[in-house]
């Protein structure tokens, strides 16, 4: 792999000599750690990708998204205004990372790593081209991710590779990520168990006068400690809780505030453990004290939809058909206009700031057919505006693994009025 000398004696003493500084370097600082998945699993993913490359006539793929770099290398980057890439050729997979991260990307990735420095503005592009040059690749067709690549970046790639065509590879990669391997399912299953632990900690912290953020912190603390125990060599990052009360339950992605709980509040518990960037979720409606009659009616209707949705998730079912059948229940109760989003989505490499498999959502416009190895949520939600009887957001969320002829619900935390009314 191309690099320039790192002997301290060669480092220029003045800013005027900055052009002599190295543009790229290899920083194998320490040994590789135990990654989230085995070498065999990581190689399997790359082999499947290379089969796509062969079929599409692609000489190299340049991934730039969080989710695909993570999926194919197990490295999850922190951008801070810098670019990152994973360059995959027929024989190599090389992450291209910023010097600010030093040797950490090497330690926490499958495959090689090339570091680029800040000394010149175009060093990232130079590093990417170096990887291809060192692999002996003069690309005629390069795979990119059109769904995440800025147009400005595509223009720069065309300047660096003027003879190459660019082919969108994002949908092929997404299709691969949608079907989980046994190792992936094992991580998701353990993470779902950790979400249940977070949920119990949140529930125990609920009391009149407690602030939303204080309740949320209890869940985060419980989950982080369990992640450290269950995944002892993993990074501790990204795990969070959205605990909402009163009007703050109206959106599924509302962050905790300083609002303090009061008797009669509708509550929403949302726990998201993230071992090594792998997302899972637990979401539940609760009440602090007995709900009024209309609130109880709405809660029971939403749990009816939830239970029917769990029943419908099975191999061979079409995402759009599931959505239409669940809509019928809301229509019967005059609540379809109060539904706020699709009924569920895929799991895996995703988070609150990076992607997921948009082709595996339980919505009316998605015709994907469920198959063994897919992992999806069932999470119906309705929102009743402030001022109407039963105001608030009602949402339940379970995770289901699709098997050969069945589906398994791996969420254990109970739902519904029988379990989640907090007595005052």
From TrEMBL:
Residues 188-403 form the Peptidase M24 domain. SUPFAM superfamilies: Creatinase/aminopeptidase (SSF55920), Creatinase/prolidase N-terminal domain (SSF53092). Residues 45-179 form the Creatinase N-terminal domain. InterPro entries: Creatin/AminoP/Spt16_N (IPR029149), Creatinase/aminopeptidase-like (IPR036005), Creatinase_N (IPR000587), Pept_M24 (IPR000994), Peptidase_M24B (IPR050659). Signal peptide: none annotated. It holds the Pfam family Creatinase_N. This is Creatininase. It comes from Rothia kristinae. The lineage of its organism: Bacteria, Bacillati, Actinomycetota, Actinomycetes, Micrococcales.
